[in-house]
Specification:
five-stranded antiparallel sheet, HAD_sf, HAD-like_sf, Cof subfamily protein (Haloacid dehalogenase superfamily), phosphatase activity
Length: 264
């Protein structure tokens, strides 16, 4: 069986790397013959610092599906086409939008110097912060502040792109059309119903829709209708995750789950 994990808020918390306790649990999955895949909104560059280097060869989906890495190398990316990008750049200027825009590796950042997102941005200094016009491709855009974010969101929703909002942070997250975590899994050759998904946010919805089962960490109103079970986010979350992973690691449990699903 394949186990697919979102990172932030799912198996790593408060901007800290994935704990050794959870890493050992993930290694037990692999030792039992299961496959472990990471699927994050972060670009691959920012995934690496929160995973111990012994996990850097694992399959990774970054940028909400716009980047695929395997065996330590980026093997596939999906970028905005020139026409769409030009339309978005016009919005950036019109509404005085500050942003974090990612290419395959380097990025352009114009946001506030104290924005919380900087805590997760290239902590190992692996890339360069360069001007938007110098980025060779654009695979992901985060809009951080604006003169009128509501109007910006309305305009973005009329475009052929994928838009997520992060309400707590008041950030708009944009990916190219057709790009999401499920599309990333498909590019890895993964089929519907052959993986277990763990996530915590709206950008995990497509991943949950095609999983068996799908386990939500915490309580997200958008994601909840697509979750088959829920783990409460509290001080015991890592212990509870380890316990649930041990249970799911059993082949009998997975067969039982399949039988249960077929009867629904």
């Amino acid at each position: 069986m394949k186990f697919v994990f979102d990172l932030d808020g799912t198996i790593c918390f408060k901007g800290q790397p994935v704990s050794e306790k959870l890493l050992v649990s993930l290694e037990k999955l692999k030792a039992r013959g299961h496959e472990v895949i990471f699927a994050s909104a972060r670009p691959i560059r920012d995934l690496l610092p929160i995973l111990h280097k012994r996990f850097h060869q694992y399959a990774m989906i970054g940028g909400n599906g716009s980047m695929i890495a395997l065996n330590g190398k980026i093997i596939s990316t999906v970028s905005f086409n020139e026409e769409t990008l030009a339309e978005i750049v016009q919005l950036l200027k019109m509404f005085n939008i500050t942003y974090l825009i990612d290419s395959e590796w380097d990025y352009a950042y114009t946001g506030p110097a104290d924005h919380p997102i900087l805590n997760n941005l290239d902590p190992l200094k692996l890339a360069r912060n360069i001007g938007l016009h110098k980025l060779t491709t654009v695979i992901k855009i985060l809009m951080l502040t604006s003169d009128d974010m509501n109007e910006v969101l309305q305009r973005l929703n009329k475009m052929d792109i994928v838009v997520h909002t992060h309400g707590d942070e008041e950030i708009i997250d944009i990916s190219p059309q057709g790009v999401d975590k499920w599309s990333g899994l498909q590019r890895l050759g993964i089929k519907e119903g052959e993986y277990i998904a763990f996530g915590n946010d709206a950008n995990d919805i497509t991943m949950f829709q095609h999983a068996r089962p799908s386990i939500m960490i915490g309580d997200n109103a958008q994601l909840k209708p697509f979750a088959t079970e829920q783990l409460i986010l509290n001080e015991n979350i890592e212990t509870n995750l380890v316990t649930r992973l041990d249970e799911l690691c059993s082949m009998d449990t997975l067969k039982d789950w399949g039988t249960l699903q077929e009867t629904k």
